[in-house]
Amino acid sequence: MSVDGTDMNLNIDAIRKVFPILHQQVYGKPLVYLDNAATTQKPQPVIDALRHYYERNNANVHRGVHALSERATADYEGAREKLRALLNAASTREIVFTRGATEAINLVAASWGRTNIGAGDEILISEMEHHSDIVPWQMLCEQVGAKLIVAPINDAGELMFDTFEEKLSERTKLVGMVHLSNALGTINPVDKIIAKAHAVGAKVLLDGAQALAHLNVDVQALDCDFYVTSAHKMYGPTGIGILYAKEALLEAMPPYQGGGDMIAMVTFEKTQYNALPYKFEAGTPNIAGVIGFGAAVDWLCDTGIDAIAAHEQRLLAYATEKALNVEGLTIIGTAADKATVLSFTIDGVHPHDLGTILDREGVAIRAGHHCAMPVMQHFGVPATARASFAAYNTQAEINALFAALNKAQEMFA
User: Fold this and answer.
1) How far apart, in whole angstroms, are the C-alpha atoms of residue 195 and residue 379?
2) Does the global pTM surpass 0.90?
3) Residue pLDDT, tens place only, 359-388
4) How high is the pLDDT of residue 80?
5) CA 244, chain centre distance (Å)
6) Is 371 a catalytic residue?
7) C-alpha to C-alpha distance for 22 and 310, rounded to whole angstroms
8) What are phi and psi of 340, to 5 degrees?
9) What is the pLDDT at residue 64?
10) What are the structural domains of the chain?
11) CA separation, residue 410 to residues 168, 287, 322, 403 (Å)
12) Cis before residue 277, ω within 30 degrees of 0?
C-alpha cells in the first residue's frame, strides 16, 4: 500500500492538515520538510495550547491563589503526568522539567556526577554520541580527574558491543548512550547496555532526544537510571525538555541551581530545599512550553507512536532503495536496526552545496556534522546530507528529494 494513502493505522492526508506550516511554498515550490531530526513541525493542537495559555491563563505556577494561577498550575502539572505516563515512570516526582535534553544531561553531570564521580573513575560513552552527551562528561572529567572512555562503532554505524563490554569495569561509574542516533539513525540495544552496565555497578543515562517520537519507551522495564529528551523533536515547542531519573537518585542529588520555587524555607543561615521534582526547577519555568509539551504528548499518543513508526519505516525503506540506485551516492549509517534517518554523501558535491540547491527546489534537509563530529571523523567525511522523516512525510516528498538530488548532480557533473 502506498505510504501516501490511508491504511488501518494512519491517514497521512488528515495528519498533514493539522500542520499549518507545511502548506506553503519555498522559492515557488511546495515545501518538502525533511529536517525532522533537527526539529519537528508543530500540529495545530500544540499551537492552540500555547495560544490558549497566553490568551486565557497567563500566570505563574505554584505561587498564586487566584484563578489564572490555579488553571496554569493544573495544566502545567497535568503535562508532567502525561510525560510520566508516556515513559511509564513510577511517579511524577521522577519527571524534572529542563530547557531540553542538553540541560538535562548537564544537570546530571553537575549534580549526580560531581557527587559520585572522582579521580580515577571512568565514564563510558559511544563514538556515535551527540555533542551534548560528550562535552558535559569531558567537562566533568576535567573537574574531578575522571577519565572518558569511548566505545567504538563499526562501519555500519553500530555499537561494537563486544568492545563496549570489554571497556566496562568496576571503574565505570556512568554509561552515557544515545538511544537513537541523530546522525546515523542507529537504534542501540539499550536493554543489553543497561544490564551490562548495572552488572559492574554503573549507572546509565540514555539520550532519548531522537527516540521518543519514534519508539515506545518504558523506563521501568528498561531499568535505566536517567533518561533525557526534548519536546521540539516530539512535535512540541522549543526550549523545553525533561530529565527522568529514579526517585532515590534525585533525592540524594544536590540542587543544580538555586532560586525561587526550589526552596521550602530560606533564612540567611540555611536553606531547606523543596520536595521532588521542584528541587531541580529553580525560577519561573517555561510554563507555556510545558503545556505545549503536554499537548504534543497528547497528539503523539492519539495518533499512535507504533503507527507513526511503521509509517516512517516504510518511508525509510523506500528512500533507501532509491538511494542505492543513485550513482555516486554513499549512505552513511547502514545499521540493521535503524529508524527515520537517511544520511549520505554524493561524489563531487559538498553536502552544504546539496543543502543549498535542494532548498531552492523547496526541499529542506540538514547538511553538516549534525553535532556529531566524531561520527564524521569515523567515516572520514567533513559532513553529510541528512533527510529525516516524520509522521506527516510522504512518498511523493521522497520523490521530490531525489529529483532535486538528480538536479544537483547534473549541475556539478
Assistant:
1) 29
2) yes
3) 999 999 999 899 999 999 999 999 999 999
4) 98
5) 13
6) yes
7) 21
8) 65, -10
9) 80
10) 12-30+304-412 (3.90.1150.10), 47-302 (3.40.640.10)
11) 49, 49, 17, 11
12) yes
